[in-house]
Design goal:
The protein is of the alpha/beta class and 898 residues long. The chain contains 29 helices and 39 strands. Bound molecules: adenosine-5'-diphosphate and magnesium ion.
Amino acid sequence: MNEFGTPHEVWALAADGETVLLRPPGPEDRDGVLAMHHTMSPESLYLRFFGASQTSVRETADRVTTPDRAGCGALIALTHDGGEVVGVVEYNGDPDSGEAELALAVADAWHGRGIGTLLIEHVVTMARADKVHTLVADTLPWNRPMLRVLEDMGLPVRNRLVAGVMNCVIPLDGDIPSTERYLTALARREALADVASLVPLFAPRSVAVAGAGRRADSVGRALLRNLKAAHFTGTLAVLHPTATEVDGVPAFPTPDLLPEVPDLVVVAVPADRVPDLVEDCGRAGVRALVVITSGATPEQAARVHDSVRRHGMRMVGPNCLGIAQTDPATALNATFGWVVPAAGSAGVAVQSGGVGIALTEQLNRLGIGVSTFASLGDKYDVSGNDMLQWWQADTRTTMAILHLESFGNPRKFSRIARAVGRTKPVLTVDAGRSAAGRRAAGSHTAAAVTPTVARGALFRQAGVTAVQTLGDLVAVAALLHSQPLPDGASVAVIGNAGGAGVLAADACVDAGLAVPRFGPDVEAELGALLPAGAACANPVDTTATVDGETLRRCVDRVLAAGHVDAVVLALAPTALGDPLGDILEGPAVRARPVLVIAPERAAAVDLLPAVGGTVPVYGDARTAAVALAHAYERAMWSTRPRGTVPALNDVDRGAARSLAAEFLLREPDGGWLPPRECARMLGTYGIRVSPWRQAFDAEEAVAMARELAPSGVDGVVVLKAYGPHIVHKSDVGGVRLRLVGDDAVRAAFTDLAHRIGALMESVVVQPMAAPGVELIAGVTQDEVLGPLVVFGLGGVTTDVLADHGTRLTPLTDLDAHSLLADSRGAPLLYGHRGAPATDTAGVEDILHRLSRLADDVPQLVEADLNPLVARPDGVTVVDARIRLAPRHGRDPYLRRLR
Ligand code: ADP
Ligand code: MG
């Protein structure tokens, strides 16, 4: 079995952003492998073979191109058109020993471009599937590049010098290739390669427009006008079958006839002409495409996708508004919208062009502007994840804004977002889009994640600022752009008209902020500052008779006292004039954020210039409070310790994946695992379920019960109806507890068979578990953020209580602990009123194992341990189910293009 399934090829990015093709070699590749070795210098050959023998080269070519040798495997890297072999990696071992020798060769011209690393990453996954637990690479000690590659993999390589040869031992057993260190190293390499591959899109040296015809009102002509108006710094051309010039720009019939091969071609030709054009671009050596055209048929779409990959291009679209790069070094506006993105600091990616225009307009108006803009459309290739990686590396971008229906591979999104969020805010709109999807899911666990509250918590965990509307997005962006983050949730509200201050205070509390009293000292000081009749507790009512200068002194006094983390000023014009003007004459930025609410003055939000910066002014209290609450959340997230993902020793990823593959071969549409396979799957990750037996008739049930009774509490057993279509057994009266003696078991079987009828295929007999706290632990999927671990009070009352915490995988030690400690069941778990504490470490261990299982087996879409019974002496899982769905079984973290 190999990891590549069908098709046997994957495309991936080398470190410099070049697309390469990876696949296991076949006999037809023999010449290519030989040819690569013939281009290698004597020195390179010596390092590979410890001698420059042509026999070794021939043997290698024969060996790696012979398929299906047990315990052995090979992969080759080819140029993206498949024309030239540029790297070969192989492992050769004895299928029984689990140890294999690793060897790598990369064409000289491709050294230093990350090909070796990429090949080893993929071969590691392949070897593990082949039950190899140790790879050994024999390397000459002065082969620095090879040692460096192995070192930088993020795998715990052990080097030992044996007879002048460096023996590099790479353990693959346990969960090593799932460790955070390895995955982090992998993610860093992916980000670098990804950014390099996007350079021709966002920093092209030459651009050609296809589809800018003679009609001045066409989309292509609008694009050309925008490109010209933005003063693109590179070379501009038009692709046109007959014209020699369009709107003053030189035109050429085909990409290969251009004097200079363009880095980027913007495609706005009719849908039926797109596939041929894309292929022509690829052949000519074009590096990137923006496809504006919509309405491709599936066949056209497939051809475009194929050309893009085969020629190693990157592509935005189709069906999009275009892209823009405001860096003056490039000055690219390849959009056909009428709003021109102003140079600025927000990275913007949208799916719909309309939203893109609205957002750009707002960011321009606020003076935030745009660094990079991309309307991603149907996202054949470039996704929100790519954009996040670009912005992470781009120093001009200070915040990332994504308004997308989906972001890209969810597992990667939640990892990338967390990494980007460390350095710059990631903002998005989450309008509870998945309600319908969530309704469709079946078990308790899936139902448990329904509320939008949980969704919000997940975005928070990922460090993503997710708001409800586009308006709120702009409101938060304005605050993050202009003010520091608050250190806490305490807000001082200062108003010059009683009612407005009270409204603002209420809005703050509604948004989850606090409006605490200042304490007597500060209140006395404010009393001295303000006229009689002013209210000096929080919210402060200065009365309408104070001027802006006094208000400003109030702000500084309140901030100096240090009791609050932010100030919200609710201002109304008074007989004395508009105090906002005076406020704006003061400093814009202090150590803590200051926001203004001024319904008479502001649109939903404005950034008004003040001394040394800008002050956010909101048209209503709710918007201001929501913005501040999000800033507070971001501050909390940034400073919260991250914890570590514990290493788990006894997990068998290969076995879990084989189990999944076998089941899906039998049930191609997926479904719930039968009890035996479910227990085995959990067993591969060290989760033990209560002992159980399956019985098909009453006498068998009696025999099984006799066998199991001694391990049950007081010799008591349990009978449960099993059938592939019974999801919740209690709902159909399918659970009989506390059965003592043969007669009781016999009677219970007959009763179940009678009541449930044909739905029941067999019964499951279990010892009765000793009583304890009934909990639920499970896994479900979020379509945006990937796998989640769910935890809460369990048992048959689960749906009613809906007491569930959720966390993104991978679960850190702090995540697992907070799931328990913050749950409603915490008093029961940690012991209260004299009751002893339960085995909370055992519960946390199960959560970690579920997290790892969910991450390692993408076909596992749902798992539901309900209940697990926690007692002081341990944890018993008495009911478990796992649902699998067909997904390609490839390693979800391996670097490859879609
Ligand atoms: P379902 O969730 O499909 O209704 P369960 O197997 O979870 O079926 O059983 C329902 C309830 O019966 C559990 O929540 C638990 O309270 C109790 N129960 C089930 N099996 C056992 C057992 N082996 N020992 C003790 N109680 C059990
Ligand atoms: Mg149950």
